[in-house]
Amino acid sequence: MSEAELHIMRARLEQGRWHKAERGELGFNLPRGYLKRPSGEVALDPDERVRDTVRLVFDVFERRGSVHGVMRYLVDHGIALPDRARGGPARGEVVWRRPHRGAILNMLTSPTYAGAYVFGRRRAGGPDVGARRRRAGQPSRRPEDWRVLLPDRWPAYISWSTYEENQRRLDANRSKHKGVPRGGPSLLVGILYCGRCGHRMVTCYRNNGRDLRYECTRDQINRGGPRCQSLSGGALDELVAGLVLEVLRPSAVEVSLQLAEDVELERAQRHRQWALRLEQARYEVERAQRQYDAVEPENRLVARTLEQRWEAALAAEAGLREEHARFLAREPAQLTAADREAIRGLAEDIPALWRATTTTAAERKEIVRLLLERVEVAVAGASENAEVVCRWAGDGEAGTRWSGRCATPPSSRATPSCSSASVPRTREACARRRSPAPCGRTAGGRRTARASPRAACGRC
Predict the structure, then answer these.
(1) What CA–CA distance (Å, rounded) separates 314 from 305?
(2) Is 183 left (phi over 0), alpha (psi -120 to 50) or beta?
């Protein structure tokens, strides 16, 4: 009877907990950038530096599109993430921590930053107990899985549409064909489709990454049929790159103006972060000075400690100002005339900028994905001619069609060292090299390591 009563009491308490959550009154730990007032109202953090840093994380993700990109930006520019101490003598104070991938991911996936009250994101279900335990700590990103969702409940850093777009980009990054470009020199990875069967073509790297080929092997892998088609990737990449450069050339002036504006906005964000950091350091120095002045001079036990804190705050401020001076010498607040002229020159000569050694393969792929939705290619039989169709972003079914020599037939890929005429010569040369003279020298006059025959060539 007592066990039954305990079960009923536990069920009633759990039900009351969910009813309170449905009203939006059940409290839980708030993410960084929020705090709860004594009245119980949830508000944005009053610290201006905290709010600016939180908004910066979402702005950088909008530009870079990945968690790793945000983390690298924060680390490269020395920007820490804010948090409120939840316990100890400094409870409630702002602490600045080193950027962490998990912390950034939690910020990007939390619907609280969109102003929504959400509860019940972690739902364990199913007959498999092990699977339930593995999924217990993984909150779902789909709103239909949440038990309680109350939009526009709290002040927001971003809009709900921006939050949904961020989730779509994070989901796309988990796919090897979508999201941010992956490594490798291939320009069309993920957006190249077979013009014969319509399947996505795979990217193959051979010869230590120097030989790039696109192949359609879906039917061969799934049904044991013949390979659909295969072509050289370098020739196709050069063709698509030329089409992309032709599209970008008329908008060179607009690109230069927009690029200069983007650079100035990004610099303004970094300079604002530096101004807030210097203001925080100045406050810490003044606070330490006030505490030192308030203590009685005779109480040397406390005065010495407060004096050390004051000196440490002064040293930290001096170091920060020196670092800020180096930052100003490296990145002035406003673009100089030389910087603007360099940006204009690069924008007007887009082909040179495209082929520059400082332009990475990932940046080229990102530009191509902004302009092209998909590329379709169909090789004409066993020839070197192919038909290429480029579907531009925003043009619907319309696209650019090109026909000509673009592919390399598989029969022409044999290297001279593997041809039938060179095999006897290679076998004869290997036989001469692995037969040393009685004195421990090879037929060519070179001394062997231990006067023993050399290892046989693996080819013969």
Answers:
(1) 14
(2) beta
CA angle, residues 364, 368, 370, in degrees to nearest 5: 120
Tokens standing for 381?
A: 């039989």
Q: pLDDT digit string (tens) for 308-337?
A: 999 999 999 999 999 999 999 888 888 888
- Tell me the chain's radius of gyration from C-alpha atoms: 32
Least Cα distance to 163 among 182, 184, 134, 142 occurs for 142
Amino acid at 374: R
CA atoms in the 13 A half-sphere facing the CB of 147: 16
From first CA to last CA, the distance across the chain in angstroms is: 85
Predicted TM-score (pTM) of this structure:
0.72
CB atoms inside a 10 Å sphere around CB 40? 8
What's the rounded mean pLDDT across residues 82-86?
90
Q: Tokens 């993984």, residue?
A: 138
Lowest-pLDDT range, 149-163, 241-255, 368-382, 440-454?
440-454
Domains of the chain: 2-173 (3.90.1750.20), 183-413 (no CATH), 417-455 (no CATH)
Q: What is the CB-side half-sphere exposure of residue 311 using CA atoms within 13 A?
A: 6
